[in-house]
Amino acid sequence: MFNTARKALFALLFAGLAWPVFAADLPEPQVEEAPPPVYEQPVDVGGWYIRGDLDYHKSKVGDIDYITYGAAPCPCGPPVGVAGSKSFDYGKLKGGFSLGGGVGYKINEHFRTDLTADYWFKSNFNGGTSDLTTVSVESSKMSALLLLANAYVDIGTWHGITPYVGAGIGGARVKWDTVYDPTPGATESNPGTSSWRFAYAVMAGASYCLTDKVILDAGYRFSHIQGGRMFEYGPAGATPGAGPGFDHGFNTHEVRGGLRYQFGGNNGCAAPVVAYQPEPEPIYTK
């Protein structure tokens, strides 16, 4: 009995001394760091911007009507006694350029609005009139100031490119220079007029992020300007007299390019901002 107890005691002592040696040979659990989660700050798109635009446009003028008169009773005023109305046989405007600018506000990621002003530089006009005995060539120049309140839908952004559609409504001040016959020796002329008219436009295009503040904008715009007075009475005492004249408005196709600069907020071009990045927590693996 004593020998058995003594052997058991020696076995326990041996196991206690040997365990640290065996434990040192056992593999320790490895610690791997998980990639830290990144929380991006929600993009709050919106803010004020200014814009500048340059375009080339081609306008088609509608019919042009004018009134003809009989002989004036005296050279002291315009002729009286309406004899009838006539129309130009044709009338064409050459293409021209415009320069514009505006201020706007980007409401959110998909909607923005702005106020724009575009000055159309003078475009040459050529037309012609005729009656039973006379054929006349008519020349003039037309310029305009177009003011519009616009709204746009930015469809979405892919690789920095944002297609959009929009529409605008406003008015235009159209100015006609003197309408005259350029034929050598001809004396016919009618003073041109200036008048405000109703106008609207629809547009489509795309913008591209140059920086987080500057956007390149290119697109197409169709605009319509309502008809109005084109020229006044001819010289007092003219025989026969003509005037005033009225154009039936303009349909204009514009190819536009420009830049927008956003002052505040986010125009959708800035990279997401990391708002919070916690310390990584260790992960134990066997």
From TrEMBL:
Top-rank lineage group of the source organism: Bacteria
Protein name: Opacity protein
Organism: Mesorhizobium australicum (strain HAMBI 3006 / LMG 24608 / WSM2073)
Gene3D superfamilies in alphabetical order: 2.40.160.20
Signal sequence interval, chain numbering: 1-23
Keyword vocabulary terms for this entry: Signal
InterPro entries in the record: Beta-barrel_OMP, OMP/PagP_B-barrel
Annotated Pfam families: OMP_b-brl (PF13505)
Domain (Outer membrane protein beta-barrel) ranges: 46-263
Transmembrane segments: none
